[in-house]
Amino acid sequence: MGKKEDVKKAAALKYDILEDEAPYILYVAQGLLAEKMVELAEKYEIPVYKDEALADVLLKIGEGKYIPPELYQAVAQVLAFVYWLDKNG
Prior knowledge:
This protein is of the alpha+beta class. It has one domain: secretion proteins EscU (name from scop), CATH 3.40.1690. Helix content is 45%, strand content 15%. A two-stranded antiparallel sheet has the order 1-2. It is globular, with a radius of gyration of 14 Å. The model has no long low-confidence stretch (mean pLDDT 90).
């Protein structure tokens, strides 16, 4: 049997501090669709933060839902990374 390949996973988040009560999961994807999401993000210079464990959890939560409080710290790291890139990129 062939080598089992890792399934790529991706999630797109949205957070507007003035409008949203918490970060929001816009999209989640696996496999080829996840690869396409990352490819398009890079093409349009949208920051990509790689955290496989967080991606796994976000996929389980699903699209169209707010991040639960227990994930605030992990998602805050993502948002801090994006903020830093915006200021220094």
